[in-house]
Amino acid sequence: MHFICFLFFLCICSVTLAQVKSQSDTSFSFSLAEQPAKKQSELWKAAKTPTVLISLGVLSCVNDDIINRYEIREERNEHMPNFRSTVDNYLMHAPVAIVYGLNAIGVKGKHDFKNRTLLLVKSEAIMAALTFSFKSMTKVSRPDDSNNYSFPSGHTAQAFATATFLAKEYGEKNIWYSIGAYGMATTVGAMRILNNRHWVSDVLAGAGIGILSTNLAYLTHRYKWSNKNSNVTLLPAYTNGPGVYFCYNIK
């Protein structure tokens, strides 16, 4: 069981730390003078780490040779059958409290209160739309058979969305903000498995969705809301279920 947990933490931490590194090399400002290749590169930088995580989640959901989710559940049931904790319900929101708490005591983040809050609201809207769309489409049964909305993990998506929010606002000041944020998010993902509420595949996909949601929120943010030159449109949408309308014009 300890070895499996170690492999899980190693897998999810390696890709999220790659996300931390990519943030220091990425600027999410757009100019109409930029070349299409540059814009495509920035979009790819925002999506590459989430793509790896979501792909691992999907593959391990449909193919047990990638990551055997049933084996991990059996190990959990054998060694920690009575594990129950509600810490994950609160820990997934901790990065948001940290961001506003740091700002309240005078530690300035990357953006002012208005833009920071708008970015958070946008990332939450994207995350919720993506998560509930996948849950409605896939209808995967939970490990405890309580319902058919297991894939992906909403708690994990929330945790990684807020972790990315903290990393973007304060990660440039000190890398330990990012490491701490993703450490908390990874803990939430592990606890969802230990609480027997999610498969490992749900957690991996949820982590990817969370990171992607906040990355897209920052990538598409106008910063000057009166600016009509933005070439990106990203809005929550509902067509036979919740979703996201995304329009990216390359000129």
Report on this model:
The structure is a single chain. The protein has 251 residues and is mainly alpha-helical. It has a domain at 63-223: Vanadium-containing Chloroperoxidase, domain 1 (Up-down Bundle), CATH 1.20.144.10. It has helices at 2-24, 36-62, 69-79, 87-91, 94-104, 113-138, 154-170, 175-194, 200-219, and strands at residues 232-238, 242-248. Helix 1 runs antiparallel to helix 8 and helix 7 (154-170) runs parallel beside helix 9. Mean pLDDT is 82; it is low at 1-7, 24-34 and 226-232. Residues 117-218 form the Phosphatidic acid phosphatase type 2/haloperoxidase domain. Keywords: Membrane, Signal, Transmembrane, Transmembrane helix. Residues 1-18 form the signal peptide. InterPro entries: PAP2/HPO, PAP2/HPO_sf.
Protein topology:
Layout: H1 2-24, H2 36-62, H3 69-79, H4 87-91, H5 94-104, H6 113-138, H7 154-170, H8 175-194, H9 200-219, E1 232-238, E2 242-248
Antiparallel strand pairs: 1-2
Helix pairs in contact: 1-2, 1-8, 2-9, 5-7, 6-7, 6-9, 7-8, 7-9, 8-9
